[in-house]
Amino acid sequence: MSHDSTTVIASPAPVARRTRLGRQPTVLALLAAVIAVDQLTKGWAWRHSPLAKINYGGNVFVGDTVSRWYADPVTGALLDLVDFGVLTAAVIILLRRRLPALVVVPGALMVGGWISNLLDRLGLHHLTAPGSVRGAVDFIPLGSIRYNVADVFIVVGTLLFMLALTARAWTTNRSATASPPPSTGHRRRQAWLSGIASAVCLVVVVGFGAVNYGGVTTPAPTSVPTIIR
């Protein structure tokens, strides 16, 4: 009798462990897929698209002063470090927090886009865009501004992430009003606030840490052989 009781009590633990571990490969696979798609399209654009150019970290939203910080070797390296720390914290949250798939998936898409752009500034541009300044390849035109696939993942992922957090917080508040458990509600409220704060930080920290060590900002034109007569 005691042996059967022990077996029944111990069995839920492996199930919970499998559920928790199952989320981690999903997050890592989404991050890897976003980075792979973005880097492949950047490499193609640098070699074939006439619209390709390098964004070393600045943009119209942060102004000329902050853009110069991105291009400076010292301040750019410090801002790269800030980016790395923020994104590392975001990945840890996605891997360890007990969040539903509706929050985890857009969060992973958003963070994956930021990581891919940061990898360009950390040196991957030597492979994606040989001979370029340190930065990310932009080639998708929208008015006078150009973007890349990582930017698309960031924008779409952030919007879906914020909507998912808002919907989850609203659902939690309704259930808490119907049958309020004080301690659980408090912990969930803290989780929502930390999730929103992480999303805001990711949106604010745009392309930090671009360091320009020389090179071109647009690909060299394809040379056309001349016929000597």
UniProtKB/TrEMBL annotation:
Molecular functions per Gene Ontology: aspartic-type endopeptidase activity
GO BP of this protein: proteolysis
A GO cellular-component term linked to this record: membrane
Keywords noted in UniProt: Lipoprotein, Membrane, Transmembrane, Transmembrane helix
Superkingdom: Bacteria
Entry-linked Pfam families: Peptidase_A8
Segments crossing the lipid bilayer: 27-46, 74-95, 102-119, 152-170, 191-211
Family in the record: Belongs to the peptidase A8 family.
Listed name of the protein: Lipoprotein signal peptidase
